[in-house]
Amino acid sequence: MVRSWWAAAVGGLMYGFSPYMLSQSLGHAMLTPAFYPALAVVFADEVLVRQRRRPAVVGVLLGIATAVQLMTSQEILGMTVIMGVPALATLAVIHRTEVRERLGYVLRVAAPALLSFLVLAAYPLYVLFLGPQRVRGPLWYLNYYVATVERFVVPSGIQLIGFGARAQLGDSSVYIGIPLLLLAAAAVVRLRRRTVVVVAAVTLACAMVLSLGGYLSVTDGHPTQLELPWTVINHTPFLNNILPIRVMLFGYLALALLVAVFLDSVPAFFESGAAGGLSTTGSVLMTPTSTYASSVWQAVAGIGFHSATGPVFTPAPGGWRWDTDLGALGARLGVVGKPGNPDPDQLSNADFQACVAELRALDVRSVVVGPERDQAEVAQLFTELLGRPGQAVGGVIVWYRVDLGA
């Protein structure tokens, strides 16, 4: 799903050390080794998308993994079933024209998977559903051990770093935080054409809603009368003994995927030695300017240069704004390539002088036009402003040495 090992490593660390893992490790040994959800994603990618390996081999491995998970934690297996529904439905809707042609491979995997699962899990299943000490009926009442809206953004004592008073919340298994939510939203907006991003976004949204339980609670101890989808699961045998808050395990897996894919979208230019040619004096202007992308690119390149811009929250009359504080140049970048707006080579002399003056004020010594919908038009704008075309290198268009004079 991602090409870069370090992007995969960041995603893996996010999942492996998520608030869910830290919280459950304090007392639930059977819920902490949550390998199966990640393996389920790998199997789904092979069975539904790639379809490269022998179906019998994939099916047997899937059956073994599922049986091992059943005997480790039935709750995680049940949550996988629940969260698989919206994920698979989303995938089927996006690629509905391919469902029929891929169904044959899926069925050839399903048969050996079911057979190997039953061989290993037949007796455990008998004990679970028919044994003398089997569980009869739900163990919990409907809104027991659920998330609240507050817990998604307010850290508990487990997450909060530093001194002073800490929020005393009943559980920290669902904490995401505002910065990570904004990053996830940015990843979805920017990479919304990628199937894995859409599926991960739907999975995250569903996990957050389901973790709230049967009725919405904004803060602890104050449930509302708004009924939520978990009430349906609460009437489903076996699944009704799953605690809603723990479904966020799959929310963190989805977040890890979103972040990994977002980081993997870094142009090859910044991962190679080509970025070493950027000016280490003055500043480097990177576009698009009003996203987190340029900050990520700078970090990947080892922060060997100073970025001229970056997205910031700025107080303004009537409320805050979130953008890069650019004047004439920012206004021009905002309309380049948009229908009905003048082409970059139609700059008036006044606009040209204003943009060049702004580049001088920022002490811009290199310019990088990154991947974006209107990359050619933006590059054309800088070609006119800088008096020469840039070089196409590793997915970007770059001007290494910019001399705007005094």
Q: Tags for this entry?
A:
single chain; 406 residues; alpha+beta; 2 domains
Task: Report on the architecture of this protein.
- The protein is α+β, with helices and mostly antiparallel strands.
- The chain folds into two domains: 5-264, no CATH class; 268-399.
- It contains 16 helices and eight strands.
- The strands form three sheets. Strands 3-6-8-7 form a four-stranded mixed β-sheet, with helices on one face. It has a two-stranded antiparallel ribbon with strand order 1-2.
- The longest helix is centred in the N-terminal third of the chain and has 32 residues, at 99-130.
**What structural class should be given to the helix and strand makeup?**
alpha+beta
How many DSSP H or I helices? 16
Task: Give the % helix.
Answer: 40-55%
Structural domain count: 2
Mean pLDDT across every amino acid position: 87
Largest sheet: 4 strands, mixed
Strand order of the largest sheet: 3-6-8-7
How many E strands?
Answer: 8
> Distance between termini?
48 Å
**Which descriptor suits the 3D outline?**
elongated
Helices and strands, in order, run as HHHHHHHHHEEHHHEHEEHHEHEE
Runs in which pLDDT lies below 50 for 5 or more consecutive residues are 166-170
DSSP strand content:
5-15%
- Radius of gyration, whole Å: 26 Å
Q: Summed up, what is this model?
A:
By secondary structure, this protein is of the alpha+beta class.
